User: Which sequence fits this backbone?
């Protein structure tokens, strides 16, 4: 009964269960990934569609922090798209598709993504651009996401 990081829970817990499922095809892992994914969904109940960075999975309460890092946004794509694919539940893909669309529509300084997005306004929260902490996973996952979806684009 405590708040957890959406970023860390997604990449370590949901991602771990999905990896175990992909390797074994044991529905136990898929069921657990889906259960945790369901617990994370209230984090997306924001005015902008960009999720809150912290959630209490026991209560669904979110930390109403106004910013989320690009790293946290980027790392949701692989797990949530795959979770929709293997469960047949489109809700996960819908959440990350909204993030992608929102990011696409934002004006990017010099064509680059600043490190933080305001979850209330849906705009960049600062102008700091980095490939380091706070943004690194976003860029890493861009390539992985492209690989994951390239067959769907053809």
Assistant:
């Amino acid at each position: 009964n405590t708040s957890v990081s959406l970023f860390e829970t997604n990449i370590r817990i949901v991602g771990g269960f999905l990896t175990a499922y992909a390797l074994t095809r044991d529905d136990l892992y898929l069921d657990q990934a889906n259960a945790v994914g369901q617990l994370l969904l209230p984090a997306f109940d924001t005015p902008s569609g960009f999720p809150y960075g912290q959630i209490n999975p026991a209560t669904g309460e979110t930390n109403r922090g106004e910013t989320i890092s690009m790293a946290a946004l980027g790392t949701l794509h692989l797990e949530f798209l795959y979770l929709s694919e293997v469960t047949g539940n489109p809700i996960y893909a819908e959440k990350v598709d909204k993030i992608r669309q929102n990011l696409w529509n934002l004006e990017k300084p010099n064509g680059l993504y600043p490190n933080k997005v305001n979850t209330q306004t849906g705009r960049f929260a600062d102008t700091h651009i980095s490939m380091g902490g706070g943004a690194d996973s976003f860029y890493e996952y861009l390539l992985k996401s492209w690989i994951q979806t390239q067959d769907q684009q053809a």
